[in-house]
Design a protein that fits this description.
The protein has about 550 residues and is an alpha/beta fold. It contains 14 helices and 22 strands.
Length: about 550
């Protein structure tokens, strides 16, 4: 029943079989090009001050008198590790093989003008880093013995993403303790890795559902279990230079026909007179609120976001709900996504709108405005989860233009980003769909949208000092600003007509270059950005 290589389809919301498939896979989330990266030369970007050229004024937001133009938009994909759906291609690969595969995924992201990657680092009570709170992931090591592979994958993944100027969002499943058998240990304590925390704290464990598809969960209603899973995730925040903490839609499990999540003992102890449903929602609310607070206390610049199921409630149930007829996250999985936005507990939200335009139960064109209206006036940015994995299905998804239609609606509505499920589907480019939306929407690079609630330290104006051709590239020599905060990245603009358009970005330390220079001479300006995407003033114009 379980397909190891393809995530489950979440389109027929009313069907128990689909919900079952979703629950088994442990995924809530799905661009492609053959890409050969150019060789990276030693950096020409340093902190040494130089004399600023006098061939133009230094004006914030302008290059030689014309405005700078750059799209501000998150673009990324989910890189799924559970059951090796995307990465690693199989468990038990060598360090060199895992690194090579990961670098290949980053190459896909760069080729597609993405600026973020969302990597599954805690699929189900395990870890892709040396953790004091969780055993090593069997999807990495190939063994359920808890033994170290001898290296630190998370440190490598963050470093390599940053080298390519990609934000790294660490994707966690908070409460999942195991995956179902036969691939995972299911609900069998005897099959857990040595040192698994649920062995020492069996009172934290809840088995659900019954039968061969059962798994273990950390009890969301047990305060000690909740504190432990928070600490386990915050360990990664403290130890690694990640840019975001990311959850998908798995808190309480999706419902199984005829079964209820067996949390009666903790409800009796901590329910405090609430209805079971209100108590469960309050437990999830507490996790979200506390994680937001604790992340910002630890590292104020780290973003916190969740990718929930695409329907909060239907308006037939609640007048505040969306024009839809599908499963309701508020009632079925106790996720009050609307409250999280209204309370400002998130920096971004990525609803999984995995349905086509015109789908009767959940029409993309009707759900999108509901989410746009929800975030209006809040600090929470709206990014949309896109179902690249569905391309090629019968009906609307057999049209390779469907995803492009979604992105066109997003742009019109002012959505600030998209995340695509998943990496494999992006790379596969089924029916040429990815190439279509790349050409129409992602052909130029984009800067990440600024979040005003995060720390800001825009750097001073850098300087362009020279240029030379190297194959198809035009490489530019640059120096950082003489004073002020250090830049985390740079943005290169080229004047064309009445504006200067963004043509390339890079992490500080990477060669500044125009990858596709125009014929003849052109005028360029360079800016520096802090790690939150706040942009400093432009360099003096430089003709090359």
């Amino acid at each position: 029943m379980l397909h190891r290589r393809r995530p489950p389809v979440r389109l027929t919301l009313a069907l128990v079989s689909v919900l079952f498939a979703v629950a088994v896979l442990g995924l809530g989330l799905l661009r492609a090009a053959i890409y050969s990266p150019a060789a990276v030369e030693d950096s020409r970007w340093s902190a040494a001050p130089i004399a600023v050229p006098t061939d133009g004024p230094v004006v914030a937001g302008k290059c030689g008198g014309v405005p700078l133009e750059a799209t501000r938009q998150i673009r990324g994909f989910w890189l799924t590790t559970v059951m090796n759906i995307d990465f690693p291609s199989r468990p038990g690969l060598s360090e060199a093989q895992v690194k090579a595969e990961y670098d290949g995924w980053l190459d896909v992201a760069v080729a597609q003008h993405h600026n973020a990657i969302f990597v599954h680092v805690r699929p189900s009570g395990d870890a892709f880093w040396p953790s004091d709170y969780a055993p090593w992931s069997e999807w990495l090591t190939g063994k359920r013995d808890g033994k170290s592979p001898g290296w630190d994958p998370l440190a490598y993944m963050v470093q390599q993403a940053h080298a390519r100027n990609l934000e790294f969002h660490a994707w966690f499943n908070p409460y999942r303790g195991t995956q179902p058998g036969p691939d995972g240990p299911g609900a069998d304590f005897a099959k857990l890795a040595p040192g698994h925390p649920l062995l020492a704290h069996r009172d934290w464990a809840i088995a659900y559902p019954k039968g061969r598809t059962g798994r273990l969960y950390f009890d969301p209603g047990n305060p000690a279990a909740r504190k432990f899973v928070e600490d386990a995730m915050l360990e990664a925040v403290g130890k690694y230079d990640i840019d975001g903490v990311h959850f998908d839609d798995f808190f309480y499990p999706y419902p199984e026909a005829g079964q209820d999540f067996p949390d009666g003992a903790s409800y009796a102890k901590w329910g405090k007179g609430k209805s079971r449903a209100d108590w469960r929602r309050a437990n999830v609310d507490t996790l979200v609120r506390e994680m937001n607070t604790r992340i910002k206390q630890l590292k104020p610049w780290v973003k916190f976001g969740i990718s929930p199921f695409g329907i909060w409630r239907n308006k037939t149930t609640d007048p505040a709900g969306s024009d839809s007829k599908g499963l309701e996250a508020y009632d079925a999985i106790y996720a009050d996504t609307r409250k999280w936005v209204r309370e400002g507990w998130l920096d971004y939200i990525v609803p999984q709108l995995y349905w086509n335009i015109g789908f009767a139960k959940a029409d993309y064109a009707k759900l999108l405005p509901w989410w746009v209206n929800l975030v209006k006036g809040s600090k929470v940015q709206l990014w949309i989860g896109q179902a690249d994995y569905r391309v090629g299905e019968k009906g609307a998804w057999s049209n390779p233009a469907e995803l492009g239609r979604h992105l066109a609606l997003d742009e019109k509505a002012g959505v600030q980003g998209e995340v695509h499920f998943s990496a494999k589907s992006v790379r596969t480019n089924r029916l040429g769909s990815v190439k279509r939306y790349f050409d129409d929407h992602y052909a130029a690079p984009a800067l990440v949208p600024v979040m005003k609630q995060l720390p800001a330290a825009p750097p001073g104006a850098p300087a362009l000092t020279g240029a030379h051709r190297s194959g198809s590239l035009l490489k530019l020599d640059a120096r950082a600003a003489e004073a002020g905060p250090e830049a985390a990245s740079w943005a290169l603009y080229r004047v064309s007509g009445g504006s200067a358009s963004l043509v390339a970005t890079g992490h500080t330390g990477a060669q500044v270059a125009d990858p596709a220079p125009a014929a003849g001479r052109a005028t360029y300006c360079l800016t520096g950005l802090d790690r939150s995407g706040n942009e400093g003033p432009a360099s003096a114009p430089f003709s090359a």
